[in-house]
Amino acid sequence: MTNPSPLTLPTPAPLLSRSGWSAYVAAVLVVCALVPTLNLLVPRDSVFYFSDYAVALTGKIMCYAICALAMDLIWGYTGILSLGHGLFFALGGYAMGMYLMRQIGLDGNYKSALPDFMVFLDWKTLPWHWSFSDSFAATLLLVIAVPGLVAFVFGYFAFRSRIKGVYFSIITQALTFAAMLLFFRNETGFGGNNGFTDFKRILNLPIATPVMRMTLFVLTGVTLLACYLGARWLIQSKFGRVLQAIRDAETRVMFCGYSPLGYKLTIWTISAMMCGVAGALYVPQVGIINPSEMSPANSIEIAIWAAVGGRATLIGPILGAFIVNGAKSWLTVAYPEFWLYFLGALFIGVTLFLPSGVVGLISSLRAKRGNPRSGEVKP
User: Fold this and answer.
1) In this predicted structure, what is the pLDDT of residue 374?
2) Among the four 66, 106, 269, 300, which has the fewest Cβ within 10 Å?
3) What gap in Å lies between CA 51 and CA 190, rounded to an integer?
C-alpha cells in the first residue's frame, strides 16, 4: 500500500508583478518628482508647465479615487453596494475643516477666537465637540476614528440583522440624507448651509502658497498609492478570499463554518475610514466643506466611478474616478449647456456595452490580441 502524496499548498501570488512594480514606481516618481518640478520650477510660459489649476484638479480627483477604491473593496469584492459613502467622506472633511477653522485664529472678519459663523450666531463658547479641534494630532485621529466608529455601529446592527442587497443600499442612502439634514441646522455647530471656508493656515503655515498646494498634492498622491497597495495586499490575503466567497455565495460560507458578520463589518469599517482620509485631504485643497458633500447624489457618483472603471479590479475604480471627473470638468467648460447629456450617455453606454468597465474592455482586447481565434465558437 502506497502512502498518499503530501498535500502541497499553492504558492502565494506576488503582491505585484515585475511590470506592476515598475508602473507603481513610475507613478510614485510622477507624483513626488515630475509634477512638483513641472509646477514649481518650469516657467509659466513653457509648454511643459503644469498649472496650479491642473494641480488642484488632479489633487481633488485623487481624493475621489481613494473613495472609489474604498467602494471597490465593499462592492466589487464583498458584494455590498453602499449609496451612503459620501457621509464618511464628509465626516473626515468636517474633522479637518474644524481644525482649519481654528487655525484662522483672530484673522477672521470678527477678529474673534471663535469661528465667524459662531460669532454671527452669538455663540459665546465652543461646543463640546470642538474640544480637540485645535490639535493637529487629535484631528488626524478623528479623521479616521469618527467615520470608522459611525460605520462600525451602523454596520454592526445592519449586518447582524442580515440586511443585504437593495435594502442595505436604501438604508445607507437614508443615513447620509439624514446626516445632511442634521448638518444643515445651525445649532449643530457645523456652519449650517455655508459649512466651513476661508481657510488661511495649516500647521501655522499659509495654506494658499504654491509650495503648500504642492505638498498637499504629493500627500494625496502618496496616500492613494499606499491605499492601492494596502487594498491589493488585503484582497490577496486569506481575509480577501473569504470576502470574495461571501460575495459569491454567503450561505455556503456560513455552512463552511465562517461567520460573515466579522468579515463584512471589518471591510465596511476600513472602507469608511479610507473615505474619511480622502475627505480630510480634499478640504484643504478645495477650500470648503459643507453639507452638500453628504447629498445622496455624491454617494451615487462614487458607485458610478467604480462601475465605469471596472469593479473587483482595484485599478479600475481609480481610472473611473479620473475618467468621469476629468470628463465632467472638461464638459462643464466646453459644453456647459450639454455636459449633463454627455455624462448621461457615458453612464448608459458603460451599463449597456461595458458591464465590466473600462478595465474589462482592455482585458478583453488583450485576450483577443493574444489569441486571434478566441472569438470563434468551438464545436
Assistant:
1) 43
2) 106
3) 33
pLDDT value for 10: 63
Cα–Cα distance, 282 to 93 (Å, whole number): 7
Which residue shows C-alpha cell 449643530? 188
- What is the rounded (10 degree) CA torsion for 183, 186, 192, 194? -170
Give 127-160 pLDDT, tens digit per residue.
Answer: 999 999 999 999 999 999 999 999 999 999 999 9
Tell me how crowded residue 1 is: count the other CB atoms within 10 A of its CB.
3
Set of cell numbers at residue 100? 482649519
Q: To 5 degrees, how large is the angle CA 255–CA 169–CA 155?
A: 60
Judge whether 71 and 274 are in contact, CB under 8 Å.
Answer: no
Residue among 72, 90, 70 at smallest CA distance from 280: 90
Contact between residue 324 and residue 343 where contact means Cβ atoms under 8 Å apart: yes
Gap between the Cα atoms of 103 and 353, Å rounded: 50
The tally of CA atoms less than 13 A away on the side-chain side of residue 135 is: 9
pLDDT digits 0-9 by tens, 271-292: 999 999 999 999 999 999 999 9
Long-range contacts of 60-64 (CB under 8 A, 24+ apart): 60/282, 60/285, 60/286, 60/325, 61/321, 61/322, 61/325, 61/326, 62/217, 62/220, 62/221, 62/224, 62/281, 63/220, 63/278, 63/279, 63/281, 63/282, 63/285, 64/278, 64/302, 64/305, 64/321, 64/325
CA gyration radius for the chain?
Answer: 23
pTM of the model: 0.93
